[in-house]
Amino acid sequence: MTYKNSNLTQVLKQIELTKLVLETDAPYLSPNPKRGQRNESSYLVYVAQKLSEIYQIPIKDIAEITTENSRSLFGI
Fold first, then answer.
1. Could you tell me the pTM of the whole model?
2. 3-state secondary structure of 76
3. What is the distance between the alpha carbons of residues 41 and 30, in angstroms, rounded to a whole number?
4. Residue 3 confidence (pLDDT)
5. Radius of gyration of the chain from its Cα atoms, rounded to whole angstroms
6. d(Cα 4, Cα 65) in Å, to the nearest integer?
7. For the chain (length 76 residues), average pLDDT per consecutive 10?
8. Mind giving me the DSSP string for 9-74?
């Protein structure tokens, strides 16, 4: 979704943020601006930033919501 020609932005606008979790697609699909580099968990911030733009809410809220979604999903 961080790539310029991605159509995922339109899809994501139809999904409630409370239904999303963040993950890395490691090791081969790094988000922009790290495209072409080996992916790592620290790059999730770029995905969160893009979600912040799409949903038009602060990145802090994205982090809190998606963290809670992950906890709920994995029962932790």
1. 0.86
2. coil
3. 10
4. 83
5. 12
6. 25
7. 84 93 82 89 92 96 96 94
8. HHHHTTS-GGG------TTT-PPTTSTTSPP-GGGHHHHHHHHHHHHTS-HHHHHHHHHHHHHHHH
